[in-house]
Each structure stands twice: as C-alpha cells, then as structure tokens.
Amino acid sequence: MPELPEVETVRRGLAPAMEGRRIEAAQVNRPDLRWPLPENMAGRLTGRRVERLRRRSKYILADLDSGESLLIHLGMSGRMLVSGVMLGDYHLDHPAPQKHDHVVLEMEGGARVTFNDARRFGAMDLVRTDREAAHWLLVGLGPEPFGNEFHEEYLVERLKGRASPIKTALLDQHVVAGLGNIYVSEVLFRAGIDPRRAAGRIASKRIAALVPLVREVLSEAIEAGGSSLRDHRQADGELGYFQHSFRVYDREGEPCPVCGTPIRRIVQSGRSSYFCPQCQK
DNA sequence: AATCCACCCTGCAGGC
DNA sequence: TGCCTGCAGGGTGGAT
Q: Which residues constitute the catalytic centre (predicted)?
C-alpha cells in the first residue's frame, strides 16, 4: 500500500510495538520476496533490539542494536500488521495465519508484526546502518519532499530540458522520492497542469509552484492516515481515509470538483493518470 | 542521460 | 461454483 503517506502511516503504527524492544523470534517463511532475502535473516534479527524506526522515501528502516538496519519496502500489496497490542480500550488479538504471511516478528512486550504481501513486489534487506545511503535501493533516490534539499530552484533545474511528461517526471524517484501514482495526479490537479505536458516546457514559475503543493497533498494524506484503496489497511488494522479527499484519482467520469467537467483517465507509461481537461492546461 | 516498455506476482471485478 | 481480460498505490533492467 505504498506511497509516502501510507508508508509513513505504517511506520507510525509500528513504532509503539517495535521501538526500544527486542525481536524475540523471527520467522522467515520463504527465501525471497521480489529479491532474495538476506543471508540468515532470521538469525540476524533474533535477539536484536530495534532502536529506531525511520522512513526514507517509501522505505522503512528499522535500526538494530547490531549496527544493521532492516530495510523494508511494501511494493504494491505489502502490509505490516501489528497484533497482540492494546488499541484504545480493546486488545488486538493475533489473527490466524494468512496466505502470503512471509515474515513474522515476535516482539518483546507481546506484539507481533506480520509482513504479508500477495504480489511479492515488496522487499527486505539488511544493511549496515552507517553505510545505508550506499545501498543499491537507496543510492539514487532524490530528495525527501519535506527535506531542505527539495526546493523550487532544485525542481526547476532538475526538470529543465526533460521531454518526458510531467506526470512521468514526478513519478521518477530520482527527481523527488516518495510520490506515486495517486499523489502525482492529485498534485497536478491542484497545480492546474496537464499531466501530458513535457516537463521541460512548463514555465519555471509553475514548476516552482509544485513544491509547496507536493508538501500540501502529502501532509494532508499523512494527516488522514493515508489512503485505503482495495481494503488496504494501516498497521493497526484501521483504514486511512484520504481516498475520500481525492479530487481526481480514480474518479473517471465524475464531475471535476472545481468546474464540473467529467474527469478523464488516460494511460501514461502504462499507468493511469486522472485529470480535469478544463482546469489542467 | 533520457526514455520506453516488458516483466516481476496474485487477486479481484466485470463481461461473457 | 466457469473462463477470460484488464487492472491494481511498486520498481528494475535491457534496449534504444
């Protein structure tokens, strides 16, 4: 369930169950997800204390007291479910094992964290924390949308001369890290930019305006606990609710919330884009 | 460097 | 409790 807001929501949901606690047992049910899992993963996790849970782009990093970090990517369908903890006034019991439960961590304190991923586009790896920036999955990533390195001049410069559509450019994790198919459509709607326009031919002022809009959309989505499409859930089983705030995504044929023109769906680089043909030029 | 697109895998909805 | 197609929030790798 993975764009930046969903991953951040998962991180926040896992933190109380994991941070400061030891992994008492680790069960690894298959040798690979999208790529092979690291050598002796269960052994390298067992007995280790999770010092911190961090997020970089769409990755979660669990820093262990061994000097390694567990790198987690949810792919398209990955979930991290917490059980055996209190949620408000009631206790979340451990569910029966599900098909596609690939990794199960039993935490000190009684919590269980289950990684379930039907499509197996997700990934896990162990990396030395002090060398994580050089990890092959992280090394080329662009700046964090909320970081200081993501600013107007940067984005204008980065997109200068690019012939690819602005939709494709913003999906490129080397340009800015963490946006995905939903939030790019939402950002471009708010910016009034047609997703088909060549990135390098859009006025600098309009490109610059994307920076605060990216932050605005992502902030609102995080605040809402992410988006729950197709039954995806937060770590505690709750549903995010930003999907109710989509202005164009997944709304083909519905009236534009601004002008009433039917929202259009097109395919770009094999993925759906949604936009208002009247408001976005 | 930029761009295109086949591919990885399973599940589900919709049409027949 | 059919069969088939298309679609799904991810990203890589090879070709051009």
A: 2-3, 58, 271
CA A165 – CA A10 distance, rounded (Å): 31
**Token pair for residue A116?**
């379930």
Residue A174 marked in a binding site: no
pLDDT beyond 80 at A235: no
Binding residues for strand B (Cβ < 7 Å): A 34, 77, 99-100, 118-121, 161-164, 168-169, 230, 269-270
- What's the CA–C1' distance between A39 and C13, in Å? 24
Residue A156 near residue A207 (C-beta atoms within 8 A) = yes
Report chain A's mean pLDDT, rounded to a whole number. 94
Report whether A27 contacts A103 (CB < 8 A): yes
**Domain with A87 in it:** 4-134
Give the pLDDT score at A228: 85
Give the CATH number for residue A172. 1.10.8.50
On whether the pTM is more than 0.90, the answer is yes
Confidence of residue A1 (pLDDT cuts 50, 70, 90): low
Question: A99: how many CB neighbours lie within 10 A of its CB?
Answer: 6
Please choose, from the candidates A249, A257, A226, the residue with its C-alpha nearest in 3D space to the C-alpha of residue A239: A226
> Is A215 within the bounds of a domain?
yes
Domain assignment of residue A139, yes or no: no
| A265 appears as a binding residue in the annotation | no
- Burial A39-65, CB ≥16 within 10 A → b, else e: eebbebbbebebbebebbbbbbbbbbe
Angstrom distance, A78 CA to C8 C1': 13
